[in-house]
Design goal:
Blueprint (H helix, E strand, L loop, with lengths): L3 H24 L1 E8 L7 E8 L5 E9 L3 E6 L5 E6 L9 E7 L5 E8 L5 E6 L5 E6 L4 E7 L5 E9 L9 E7 L2 E6 L4 E8 L2 E6 L11 E6 L5 E6 L4 E8 L2 E9 L10 E7 L5 E7 L3 E7 L6 E8 L5 E6 L5 E6 L4 E7 L6 E8 L3 E5 L1
Antiparallel strand pairs: 1-2, 1-28, 2-3, 4-5, 5-6, 6-7, 8-9, 9-10, 10-11, 12-13, 13-14, 14-15, 16-17, 17-18, 18-19, 20-21, 21-22, 22-23, 24-25, 25-26, 26-27
Length: 365
């Protein structure tokens, strides 16, 4: 007969093992928020659980009912979430929303503020976590909001109007880098640079590089060291690669995002660097592909190595999971999210599976 203390020891060890397994399982499952256009079946922001080991998306639920939340960003402590919203009502202004993130994945509205322009399409947060920048596509304006202690937003503290006498602005995205703010203006074919000076951002230059023709700069990504900027051009279906030398900028590369034999009308959409900075990914709406590029981390130049079907229609946005293992695409018109595995040796993608969700246009880990 075994001594009684041995039975207690077995129970304790089994309990620890079970607890450990639960903790590990929890760590491998993270939230994914999905922004949508609420013109048909969608009601707002949706919440999924994503398995970082298998790439599975499960437990879809409505996190917050809100009008066309088409771009989102977390606060630095991830306790709050901010969205660009189109009201869908010509008598009501478009707006920016601040939400509390609840433990069960739902979102609780803190407040909203006027977007100071029509069709807000992009929000981003500065490195200190104190400012939100919003761009208004049809308004041609960029608005900056201070974040309150409770996570809510103040009224816009600065508004930049990019419209000119003979040019209509379509401000499409912005990004902070240290004490600077860069803005991609699709309408005026320019990347603008603002610099923080005495508490306010001030325009530094009309355009950091000269555009040829009508490329339509939409979104951009900045390398971790700040030396290179990669711009996705919606109309030209190309990537403009820009190198920075102190305060000077120059174009070093221009590459097509499309397959050589494509016959589809196309509008390139989104762009992101891989976690290791060795690869660059972009989405093509029309051709309905993700284009993959090798990136020379020394020279900044890129070379296309793959175009792969998104297994859906009209890929507006995509994201890479925090582990750098999976790439997820939001296909607006086919109402699905496609999951791809990233080959860690060459950056190329392989399709795994997809899930249905209404009118997805933005994905946030």
């Amino acid at each position: 007969m075994k001594p009684i203390w041995l039975y207690f020891l077995i129970v304790i060890l089994y309990s620890c093992k079970t607890t450990s397994t639960t903790i590990n399982a929890e760590k491998s499952t993270i939230p994914l928020y999905v922004g949508t256009f609420t013109t048909k079946d969608s009601k707002g922001i949706y919440h999924f659980l994503f398995n970082t080991k298998t790439g599975a998306l499960t437990n879809q639920k409505l996190a917050a009912e809100t009008s066309s939340p088409n771009y989102m960003v977390y606060s630095k402590n991830r306790k709050h979430l901010y969205t660009a919203n189109r009201s869908g009502n010509p008598d009501q202004p478009d707006f920016i929303s601040a939400f509390n993130v609840n433990k069960n994945g739902t979102l609780t509205l803190i407040n909203t503020q006027n977007s100071q322009g029509k069709s807000p399409c992009h929000v981003t947060i500065n490195e200190e976590g104190t400012l939100i920048s919003n761009t208004n596509y049809n308004g041609g304006t960029v608005s900056l909001y201070q974040i309150n202690k409770d996570g809510g937003l103040t009224k816009a503290k600065q508004v930049f109007n990019h419209n000119a006498k003979n040019q209509t602005s379509h401000a499409h995205s912005s990004q902070f880098y240290k004490n600077e703010l860069f803005v991609a203006d699709l309408g005026r074919n320019a990347i603008y640079q603002y610099v923080l000076n005495e508490g306010e951002y001030k325009l530094q230059s009309e355009a950091i590089v000269n555009a040829v023709g009508n490329p339509g700069p939409r979104h951009f990504t900045i390398s971790q060291n700040g030396t290179f900027i990669y711009v996705i051009n919606e109309y030209e279906n190309s990537i403009t690669s820009i190198k920075r030398d102190d305060s000077n900028f120059k174009t070093i590369d221009l590459d097509t995002t499309l397959m050589s034999n494509t016959t589809e009308e196309n509008f390139s959409a989104d762009i992101h660097l891989s976690k290791n900075q060795k690869y660059l990914y972009v989405t093509n709406r029309g051709e309905n592909t993700v284009a993959v590029f090798n990136r020379n981390t020394e020279t900044g130049t890129i070379e296309k190595i793959q175009n792969i079907s998104v297994e859906g229609d009209w890929p507006r946005n995509f994201t890479i999971d925090p582990t750098g293992t999976f790439l997820l695409v939001a296909n607006r018109r086919s109402n699905n999210i496609s999951v791809f595995k990233i080959n860690q040796n060459n950056g190329q993608l392989s399709f795994l599976h997809d899930v249905k969700t209404p009118s997805p246009v933005f994905l946030l880990f």
